[in-house]
Structures are given as structure tokens and as C-alpha cells.
Description:
388 residues; Inosine-uridine Nucleoside N-ribohydrolase, Chain A; 10 strands; two-stranded antiparallel ribbon; binds calcium ion
Amino acid sequence: MDSKQPLRITRRRFMTSSAAVLAASSFAPETWASTGQAVASRGPFRVIVDTDPGVDDALALLLAMRSPELKIEAITPVAGNVPLELTLPNALRLVEIAGRTDIPVAAGAKAPLVRRLVTATYAHGENGLGGAVFPDPTTKPVAEPAAEYIRRVVRKYPHEVTLITLGPLTNVAAALNADPELAGLVRGLTMMGGSLSGGNITPAAEFNVYVDPEAARIVFQSGIPITMVGLDVTRKTSLTDEHVRVLEAAQNPVSQAAAKIGRNAINHNRERGFLVGPNMHDSLAVAAFLDPTILKWQEYYVDVETTGELTAGETLGYSPVAGDLKRRPGAEKEAGAASMSIRGSAPTLASTKTSPVVRDKYGPNTNVGVDVNSARFFELLIGRLAGK
Ligand code: BDR
Ligand code: CA
């Protein structure tokens, strides 16, 4: 077994801190949580939104800024969909559109930890907002860089801050690298990222994890209780003409901006020959934090492939109840978990490793969204953006 095992997250911390538990005290994996409190009666929760706007980031940010349950301590743009030179002003534009210049915006990383930046202008356009043009922002970012800002806010409010990440995880990993105690002080992390059912930028990897797999691995192995809203569920959300019509009809700056971005995104999707979409990946992550009962959840130990020639950025979900060899109900989970190790690739002849086991015992680190009630999600998203 590898002597350097990833940090083990305690079951207690995992269960008490996950976003799903926050909303549904009788949280039960593999079922629609049915006892969620009314959304607006919860919170306020301190959050930092880390993001790479980004068409769907833009709608997610507007949703977050229109949600009274959230006390947004900072928005921390990172390079991803487009370079930081665009994600930063896009974030500033969005706080101005939402009338939320009270929220500090701290500039993040220009490049992944150890890789060259790969962007997604094919999906988000050259300006990151799908070609939708808004005035240049006059608001300035704070002087502190994002990683330092994240560190300072988490330390100021120990065990209170949830990180909502909508882009590559570079800023968060940099903060964790700079401060080894930080992970233990973060309340939780809800991410749009990853997939247990194939990728979107390669057959293996989802874009946010693909761009900075090393950062993602640091985050998954940090011990922070993670809620993963990946392609498994975000692919089931499609913005439609009808959604945009509702936004267009609502006469307020947020709904008008969202409608403009949404309309462009739908047209762009059609031009590329897609019959459905665009998917509202990032808004679903924000919605999942606001109301976890919109999704079904299943716990996994998730790790990230970082060395594959074709598969870097793939997220692997280990679960004692996955697979074909079912045990009898009830005994299944306990027996499976007790006997399950985390197994990696077979050692090569050239390596010093002798065992494929990278971790001797299973323990979950992530609640993974495995299904979504898309209609309820859009009720929340469009309702809030329209200002209802
Ligand atoms: C994710 O990648 C980005 O292109 C989107 O903004 C979203 O965060 C989906 O894979
Ligand atoms: Ca994004």
C-alpha cells in the first residue's frame, strides 16, 4: 500500500457538513430528499463563489446574487472558459448588473497549477459571454489575490464558509497549498465539476476538472466535505426559448441581462447543430446548494486521474454499492464498505510500487448528484432571475 495516503475525511464531518444534510435532515442517498425546508427560510450561509464567466457562470452568479440565503463574501474569478483578462471583467460586469458592487471581487489564477490553460471559447464565445456585449465595468477588484482572499475569509469565519466553485479549482487549491490547516476550517465545497458518466471535453473528463486536474485532486483529497454537481445531472438541464421569453418579459436589469446571454447561448447551440441545450451546468450547482432536494444524491469516494495521456481530469467514483455483485439489501453497504479498498492501476515492472491498492479502506468524501428534477430547478432559476 502507498505510504502517502490522502487525508481521510471523518464520516461525522462528511455527514454533518454536506450541503444535502444542511437542507434535508433525513437525507437518504438514492431517494429524492423530501423534507427540505422551504428554500428561503434557510440561511444566510456565508459563501465564496469561484468562477470563470462563462455563459452558464453568468446566470449562476446572477442567481447567487439574487438569493437571500447567501451571504456572498467574495467572487473569485479564475482562468477557464476564457482567460482571466476576460473572466475578471465579466465578473465585475455581473456584480454591476445585479447592483451588488458590495461584493468583493478578487482576481484569481491566470493559469492552472502545472499545465497550460485550455479555454472553451468554442462554447462561450471570444468574450466569454457568448457574444452578449455589456458596458465595461467601472468597479475594480480588491487588491488581494483570490487565493489569499479565500484564505483570509475562511480563517475569519472558521467552519462557516462554503466554497461554491463553478470553474477550474486552481484558486481553491492554491489557497489550500498556502495554508495546510485551511481545509479543516472550510464548511463544505459545492462544485460544478466532474462526471461519473463520461466527459464533455474528452470522453473521460469534464471541462473544469480537465483544465486543472492537479488542483481538483488536491481539493478532493483535502478532507473538505464535497458536493459534486457534475455532468451526470447538469446534462439533464436545458435552457429553452420559453425560459428566455419569461426572462425577457420581466422588466429588470438582471432578467434582461440573463435573457440576452441565454438567447445568444441558445442561438449559438442551434448553429452548432445541437437539438437540446445549452445546459445550465453552473446554475445547477448554485441551485443544489440553495435547495439540495432538487437532486438525488449518492455518496462516493471520488478521486481524479492526473497522469493519463488521454484521460487526465477523469473523476472516478468508488462506492461499495456500485457494480454488479449486489449483496442482500441492508447488508450491502456495510459489508461492502468494510471490505472495499481503493484500487488504482496495476503497478508497472519499472515502478517501485508493488500493490495496486492506493488506500486501504473505503470512506466517502463526496456527495454526488445522480439525478435532478429539472423542472423544479428551472422554477428556481428563472423565478429568481425574473425577480418573482
Ligand atoms: C463547465 O465547464 C464550463 O465550460 C462551464 O462553465 C461549466 O462550468 C461544464 O463542463
Ligand atoms: Ca464555469
